[in-house]
Design brief:
The chain has 391 residues and is an alpha+beta fold. The chain is built from 14 helices and 12 strands. The chain has helices spanning 12-19, 23-35, 40-53, 82-90, 115-119, 122-128, 164-203, 222-230, 246-262, 320-327, 331-341, 346-353, 357-371, 376-386, and strands at 58-64, 74-77, 107-108, 135-142, 148-155, 206-211, 217-220, 234-237, 240-243, 271-275, 284-290, 305-310. Helix 12 crosses helix 13.
Amino acid sequence: MIRVPESGPVDSQTLFARSGVDFQTYEQMIGLIHDGAFDLQAWDALLHLLQAQLRANYVSLVLLPDLSGPGLPILFAGPARQDLLAAYTDVLHGLDPFVNLPRDRMLAVEELISEAEWLDSVVYRSCMAPLGIRHLAGADLDVGSEAVCRFRVCRSAEGGPFGEAERALCALLLPHLKRALRARAVLDGSDRERRLYAGALERLEVGTLWVDRHGKVLGSNRVADEILAADDGLRLVGRTLRPSLRTERLLLHEMIARVGGERRKGPGLVEGMTLTRPSGRSRLGVLIRPVPPAGIAEYGPCPEAVLHISDVERSVGASPALLRSLFGLTSAESGLALLLVEGLTLDEASVRQGVSRHTARSQLRSIFAKTGVTRQTELLRLVLRSVVPLG
């Protein structure tokens, strides 16, 4: 059974004195820890620096649940074999003897289980021993929202157990690492929300652009990129949005500045306009909404407004198969519903479908009966809501 030793708090000055590390190296480590909140390469450099400082053969940082992408993210310093690293990623991390440690404490394996239990464990025999690992120390850091970061340091048998200096250095760094991990979790969560939001709007064929207070574009989704690339009513010059008409150009940037300026005063206003297209095609609709300011000082360029660009000539992104599945429509009814959603009249849709107006009207009545709506405007709203992705 795992035995967790009692431990009282130790102040940072005492830990620094015990660690034996010089101030320049300590300062470098602290800088890399906090830079890692915005750039994972900094944490990679930190682990390699710790590997040398602790005379370890491996140092790892495992993020649970995932803070950065699909799969189990592991940052590793050491000559790991990819097959064993993959095995740890897929299976063996669940057999870690340090699972369910008291949070935010640095402990060595010999403090928890006997030497015989450790050497006979599956994770040691299957993963650690083949990598030349004999001694293991680590900490589980609580980074909020049930996310846990596993920090592990390993040594070979020749390296000997971790001493007071090595444990003190790790304990000295843990509070800084925890704060940086929490910051990264918040940033990653915001980024995931933004990607999900942009993806939903892509399904509706709505372009989305994030801009700063000067109207410089900081991000965009696929639909917005395609609209800008068409250079018909709106294009990108450098990173600045440029409508085709000068009067519309001035108005757009006035609106962006106004929306951005108002966002810090409380509930923001929404602005809207249309843009003329030199090709003569339908005008582009633009909706400008404020982006709420961060609760803390914002880091780097931050979006102040989000622009939603709609082109009525683009498809809404639904498929006949999806409408058949959702509402029990026939193939002909699904095709007619999509044409109506795209803005065609019933007569135009019947010509496109190659059927008589009488047949189209009969299909429309059936669509209304199956979907529970009674007007084409209600059908439009229903279909648009239905094609937004649920995940």
